[in-house]
Every structure is written in C-alpha cells, then in structure tokens.
Amino acid sequence: TKDQRVMDRLDGVILMSPDVDLEVFQSQARSIGALPQPFVIITSQKDRALRLSASLTGQSARLGNIAKADDLADFSVTLLDVSDFPGDPLDHFTAATSPALIGLLRRLDALDQAFQNGEPVRAGLLPGTVLTVRNASRVVLQPGAAN
Prior knowledge:
Layout: H1 2-9, E1 13-16, H2 22-32, E2 39-43, H3 48-57, E3 78-81, H4 94-97, H5 99-105, H6 108-116, E4 128-133, E5 136-141
Parallel strand pairs: 1-2, 2-3, 3-5
Antiparallel strand pairs: 4-5
C-alpha cells in the first residue's frame, strides 16, 4: 500500500516528548508492523505539560512520560529518559533546551551503532543506565557524566 511505501523509506524515527495516548501508540505500532530503526522516544517523568495532558484525559501517563520499558516491550524501541536533565520551565522541551543533553544527543550515531551491533551496554557509550525488556530498551541518561 501507499502507506507502507512511506514507512519503507524512513531511516529512523525520533519522537520528542510525544503527547500521545499509550494505547493509541501501541495500536498504531501493531498496525505498522516492523517499526523503522532506530525508533527513539525521548521521555521525562518531570514533563509537566504531559502530566497535565494525562490528567485532562483521565490517564496516568502519556507516551512521552512513561516510566518503564515494560509498556513497550512488544516493540523495537529505545526510550531515552531525560528526567535528570534541567530543561525549560515545563520540562517539556528538555531535549532542545538543555546544553548538556544536546551535547549528548549529538553522539546518537554512536548509540545507534552500538544497538545495531547488539552492544547496548558498551562501557563509556552512555552516561546512564540501560534496561531492556524483550524488544524495548530504556536508557536513563545522567547529566553529570554527559561530557
């Protein structure tokens, strides 16, 4: 189909603080099938904008502030948890406003190579902790080591 041709042309996806219902994402990802790789979701538990959105919809979380890889274990995704980085007043645009995080994100090519080679925990690659549940990995980044 036309939609599948578009998906086949994607070299990867990065979602920054997505204000998306978790069940909607899961449903859409299942209908897509194999997600483009890498597929990265930048998350933060400090994101006040997403907390407000979740409360307005009567949910506990949005895709951009989920706390564990278990929620996406059926999908080949990498969650980059940037909760420990200082950001804007709402902590919603941290990936675009934190100089330390921006410097770290510039090294995403090395991160992608490590995951493609099956080495998600190679020493020194990431300043943080990597947790993997089936297909999904959650990388909890730490600013102190991001130099």
